[in-house]
Write a structure and sequence with these properties.
globular; disordered N terminus; two-stranded antiparallel sheet; mainly alpha; Serine Threonine Protein Phosphatase 5, Tetratricopeptide repeat; 261 residues
Length: 261
């Protein structure tokens, strides 16, 4: 299956070009297979060779993104609640200064990642996590309130699937797994949403009891996303920015508190 990360409508292109970018990103479209070494069978299925992790440190650029996102070089050495409290503003609040910093520091890596120039990040568990962050979180800051905020979601979801296939979540700390799983929470697929809730519930059970309340909140938020997608088959709050027409039921829903994220 070919992943056209940037197959957006004309309105999206105008928004992008009007923001002052040079349009280079529009020229890059490549197949994103679940592995840079995967091969396709005649029926289109993807075969994966045996995979062995590089257990060294992730590449410097990946490590820089991870340090920025988690506020520490090794978040596994801190309690999840402490990391979550310290980073909550970055993770969950809209802030123009934060968006500007993310744009300046990490947006230049989006095109190289699309070309495949950053595939070496995928050799380590935390490097793969950094690639998920690059495609799932960075665009939401860089292109906030535009269709481009969601342009990389399918690629991020495929990277999460690759990470789960390779068992990366068993090698990451619980707070890192939170962001490894988020592309499934951002998906408008009902099956992805169900899988996400299952993963968050398992993660909640994995953490020490004194940290469980933090992850209960994450699981509850995942369930809320699932309920919306189960009901509508999509997130109605995205309709306006994506140029989609809302149904009467969706319009009524959007008037309710908590209908948007």
């Amino acid at each position: 299956m070919t992943l056209h990360v940037f197959a957006l409508n004309r309105r999206a292109r105008r928004l992008y070009e009007g923001a002052g970018f040079d349009g280079e990103i529009l020229r890059y479209r490549r197949k994103l297979s679940p592995s840079s070494t995967a091969s396709a069978t005649p029926d289109g299925a993807v075969e994966h060779p045996a995979f062995e992790w590089d257990h060294g440190e992730p590449p410097a650029e990946a490590a820089d993104l991870l340090h920025f996102w988690f506020g520490a070089s090794q978040p596994a050495e801190e309690s999840p609640s402490r990391v979550a409290e310290r980073q909550s503003k970055l993770w969950w609040q809209k802030d123009e200064a934060t968006d500007r910093e993310v744009r300046e520091r990490f947006a230049p890596q989006l095109v190289p990642a699309e070309r495949g120039d950053l595939d070496h990040w995928l050799r380590t568990p935390r490097g793969l996590l950094a690639r998920v962050l690059l495609w799932d979180q960075v665009p939401r800051n860089v292109y906030r309130e535009s269709p481009w905020a969601f342009a990389y979601d399918e690629g991020a979801r495929r990277l999460t699937s690759l990470a789960l296939e390779r068992g990366a979540d068993q090698l990451l700390s619980p707070i890192e797994c939170l962001f490894l799983y988020l592309p499934l929470e951002h998906s408008e697929s009902r099956s992805d949403q169900r899988r996400c809730v299952e993963l968050f519930a398992a993660l909640e059970a994995r953490v020490p009891e004194d940290q469980r309340s933090v992850f209960e909140g994450f699981t509850g938020f995942a369930r809320r996303h699932q309920e919306i997608v189960e009901r509508f088959g999509r997130f109605p709050h995205r309709n306006q920015v994506l140029g989609r027409r809302s149904t009467v039921e969706e319009e009524e829903f959007l008037q309710q508190p908590g209908s948007s994220f």
